[in-house]
Specification:
Length: 906
């Protein structure tokens, strides 16, 4: 095995040389660097309403895992229900929680929303976020072999003898196909959905629970919104089975930890989304079932670590469960795009790297039968496996090659069309209208593309996509003597041009409280794994959803290694027994007391930072707030005999000057070790949240010593001062790595491994970010329920039905607290709140999407009593507390006051 330390050392040396060349004297003040192709963007210019519809209600006492008796929790809930009935508040209770959160999730009509604040015992209200079950992002078909090699899982299995034996992993997802032979089943599908299943539980899927049933969809309507669970946590969607296979399949597919046991917790129906209230109920069940690790390949983008799901996840970790969660797939939506549960302060948030290999269906080209791998387009007919056709170009210049205009006759030919300018559907439809027998789209950037040609009328000819390199090859042959393509049933193995680079969809940090997230990365782009038998048994998906189980499997191997050391397993040889006998421990804890909260630090210390996706040839490390500590490195995490705490540094903003930190190195090896200490910068990002830009400007780091000797069984401290880069644009995010490289005998044991600590910070005053921005629609507006117009002064509302005043506003950034008040014209102060304060509010997903804040005419006074505002002239005041603002400091608030309007009840 090439050690992680060697790989890490090579990358860091390359980066230092590149930065030294580009930051030489005479360079410009700011050092922006552009990717070879533009960063993905989700911007669409549309005013999209993203207002939540369900809510968490938090009650006063801590949950039971923090010591509150069940009797006290029951009494508080009973008091809430009684008080709500007495006040005439109508709501639907979805879930009641005791263990990890004290309160409810409810749905309530917005016209009664303000009444929640009046119920005694309510301490906070949070929106329930919808969590989409991620669809396949790439239908390529690579094996797991290359993904296992990327993290060293293959080495951990074959050389270190690890398999996850004795570790229980809870999968909170779409369920698990426990009929699948790679997951302990007998290969025979269950006779009927929800019926008796001879395969549950089985030798691998040992427990589980269905929380929702097949029809549930949190984004649906009517009966879809009502959970209707059955006794079997089977999987009719596929995602959970795929995730489980990555963690621990053992059959045709071999996962990271092929001998773990599973708990299956189904929180999605056969399609659509779930709510984080359902997910929290599953987390409480996983705690009851004594899971060692919980995998959540899901999340609510743009949310806070302090959200109910984030806090509940942290409580799971504090009570002995390692929680691994997806950072999210909102990379195209810019900075601060991760979410809970991944951003929980004790959770391991996983970023995604693209797989290094892909296996693709192929067609061949004349005259030499060159095989060209392709990706089938979604919403087009399946490509045939036989038949030959001449190929035609759609143009010879950049203005015609993209196929975005009407095309001349292509009858009987397969059209080659370049990506760009217009949608894949338009290209395919133009070719179809010209009589083409098929379409081959080729990328205009490195890597594979997964097109969709959904539209009306439907595309009825096969459409596939190839790489830019293969597209240029075909184009050249057409321009020469012409070329014939032949569809085949063959597969071709190809290196992935974006392999080992961060995936285009992987979300950016930081968290809204400036915590450094994600924590670590793993293979998530183009991963083949198990799938429900009824859906084909195996499939390839992409997402941080796939990186999460790769990480969770690595956690299982690490936990098993401690059991082996503790039990002196007979398979554990070449020096491990002596290390165990020497009292080897981690982070100050004996081997039989490895805390769940310590696991993340072990993984981060030994991870390997990777190069920038935008142009890896330049040698720059990718953003720390995109890849965290870097690629998961399982063997080094298992073998390392030292660690550095804290394992990541969240620096906050730089308005108060340099940041002073202390790192502690603990040596639990068999000899004294001297470490050289260096700083290696990573790329920074610029000001705009939604359109990410990249800069070389990096922090400077000063150490109180450049090397330190740590005696065996002892620890040492290093003090450092980190100064933000003055030349980085204001509101930029910078980061890098503090690296500890051992001097010594290099005998290949755990004492020889380099360790690193990622850091990230915000340049400038974080409170200077504007939350309420105008957008292209000149928001905020006073409007009505239909958003029919931006009303000026003098509009009248009757408050009958939906004829209520609304404020619609765009949130460019997350807000600590949102408050709306009503003020009668002529009064010096507001009459009171119109609804409860909203805690830890998310940002909008794009630069033009919005949130809606209606008023039903109710006023909540300071003492909690309420009254109906009399007819008259009013203004609404929307106040937003900045992300880390002080509610007692007026400078930390933004305020919008509507034009004067009239309430005139009939």
């Amino acid at each position: 095995m090439k050690s992680g330390a060697a790989v890490r050392s090579g990358l860091l040396t390359l980066l230092c040389l590149s930065v030294a060349m580009l930051l030489s004297p005479g360079a410009v003040a700011q050092h922006q660097v552009d990717p070879l192709t533009p960063a993905p963007s989700a911007e669409n210019g549309q005013m999209t309403d993203e207002t939540p519809s369900s809510w968490f209600v938090e009650l006063a006492s801590p949950p039971s895992v923090e010591g509150t008796s069940r009797a006290t929790l029951k009494a508080e809930k009973d008091q809430f229900r009684a008080a709500a009935r007495a006040a005439g508040v109508t709501y639907k209770e979805k879930y009641a929680y005791d263990k990890l959160f004290n309160g409810f999730s409810i749905t309530i009509d917005r016209s009664q929303f303000g009444a929640l604040a009046r119920i005694p015992g309510v301490v906070a209200i949070y929106p329930v976020s919808k969590v989409q079950a991620p669809p396949p992002l790439n239908p390529n078909d690579p094996g797991m072999t290359s993904a296992l090699a990327m993290t060293g899982a293959d080495y951990a299995q074959s050389v270190l003898g690890l398999s996850g034996r004795g570790i229980r992993v809870g999968i909170i997802d779409t369920g698990i196909d426990y009929d699948h032979p790679d997951l302990g089943g007998n290969g025979v599908p269950t006779a009927s959905p929800g019926g008796p299943s001879p395969n549950f539980p089985n030798s691998r899927v040992i427990t589980g629970y269905d929380f929702v049933g097949d029809n549930y969809n949190a984004a649906g309507t009517g009966a879809q919104l009502v959970p209707n669970p059955d006794p079997w946590p089977d999987d009719c969607a596929g995602h959970g089975t795929h995730v489980s296979g990555i963690v621990g399949a053992h059959g045709s597919i071999v996962g990271v930890a092929p001998n773990v046991k599973f708990g299956a917790y189904r929180v999605f129906g056969c399609s659509g989304s779930s709510g984080d209230d359902v997910i929290m109920a599953a987390m409480e069940q996983a705690l009851d079932d004594h899971m060692d690790v919980v995998n959540m390949s899901l999340g609510a983008d743009y949310t806070w670590p302090q959200s109910p799901l984030g806090k509940a996840s942290d409580r799971l970790v504090r009570h002995g469960v390692v929680v691994v969660a997806a950072m999210g797939n909102a990379g195209a939506n810019g900075l601060y795009s991760g979410g809970a549960p991944g951003e929980g302060h004790l959770v391991i948030a996983a970023a995604s790297f693209d797989n290094t290999q892909v296996t693709l269906p192929a067609f061949t080209l004349s005259p030499d039968n060159a095989a060209i791998g392709y990706t089938p387009a979604v919403a087009a007919p399946a490509p045939p496996t036989s038949g030959s056709f001449p190929m035609a170009r759609t143009g010879t210049t950049s203005s015609t090659a993209d196929g975005c205009a009407a095309l001349p006759s292509l009858t009987g030919k397969v059209a080659l069309i370049r990506r760009g300018t217009c949608s894949f559907y338009v290209k395919a439809f133009n070719a179809q209208s010209a009589g083409a027998a098929g379409v081959v789209l080729y990328n205009n950037a490195a890597g594979f593309v997964s097109p969709t040609v959904a539209g009306t009328p439907a595309i009825t000819i096969p459409v596939v996509a190839v790489t830019a390199v293969d597209g240029a090859l075909i184009d050249g042959r057409i321009a020469g003597s012409g070329v014939t393509m032949t569809w085949t049933s063959n597969l071709v193995n190809e290196p992935n041009p974006t392999g080992n680079l961060i995936s285009s969809f992987s979300a950016y940090g930081l968290a809204p409280d400036l915590t450094l997230d994600p924590d670590i990365g793993a293979p998530g782009g183009s991963i083949r794994s198990t799938y429900p038998i009824e859906l084909g048994s195996y499939a390839t998906l992409s997402g941080t959803s796939m990186a999460t189980p790769a990480t969770a499997g690595g956690v299982a191997l690490l936990l098993e290694s401690r059991h082996k050391c503790r039990g002196h397993d007979a398979r554990w040889d070449w020096g491990w027994h002596s290390r165990c006998n020497d009292g080897w421990s981690r982070g100050g804890h004996d081997d039989d007391d490895l805390r769940a909260a310590d696991v993340r630090g072990i993984l981060q210390n030994n991870a390997i930072p990777h190069l920038w996706w935008g142009n890896p040839g330049l040698g720059f490390l990718d953003n720390v707030h995109r890849q965290g500590a870097g690629m998961l490195n399982i063997p080094d995490a298992v073998l390392a005999t030292a660690d550095v705490t804290p394992s990541k540094l969240s620096l906050g903003d730089s308005k108060n000057g340099p940041d002073h930190r202390t790192l502690t190195i603990e040596n639990n090896g068999r000899r004294d070790v001297t470490y050289d200490i260096t700083h290696v910068p990573a790329l920074s990002t610029g000001t705009n949240t939604f359109t990410v830009s990249f800069y070389l400007d990096s922090a400077t780091v000063q150490f109180d010593k450049t090397s330190v000797t740590v005696p065996r069984g002892r620890s040492a401290k290093v003090h450092l001062t980190i100064t933000a880069p003055d030349t980085l644009p204001d509101h930029g995010i910078y980061g890098g790595y503090i690296v500890f490289t051992p001097e010594g005998d290099n005998d290949g044991d755990g004492d020889d491994l380099a360790l690193s600590v990622p850091y990230a910070g915000f340049h400038g005053d974080y409170q200077s970010i504007q939350v309420l921005t105008p957008t292209s629609f000149n928001l905020p507006w006073l409007t009505d329920a239909a958003f029919s117009a931006k009303f000026g002064a003098g509009h009248t509302f009757t408050l009958a039905g939906t004829d209520q005043p609304h404020i619609i506003a765009h949130f460019d950034h997350q807000s600590r607290l949102v408050r709306m008040q009503a003020q009668k014209v002529g009064d010096a102060k507001p009459l009171g709140k119109t609804e409860p304060d909203l805690e830890y509010f998310r940002r909008n997903s794009t630069s033009t999407s919005i949130f809606d804040f209606p008023w039903d005419g109710t006023i909540v006074k300071r003492d909690g009593t309420t009254f109906a505002a009399p007819n008259g002239d009013y203004q609404l005041i929307l106040s937003v507390l900045k992300a880390l603002g002080d509610r007692d400091n007026p400078a930390d608030w933004e305020t919008f006051t509507t034009p004067t309007f009239t309430i005139a009840r009939p």
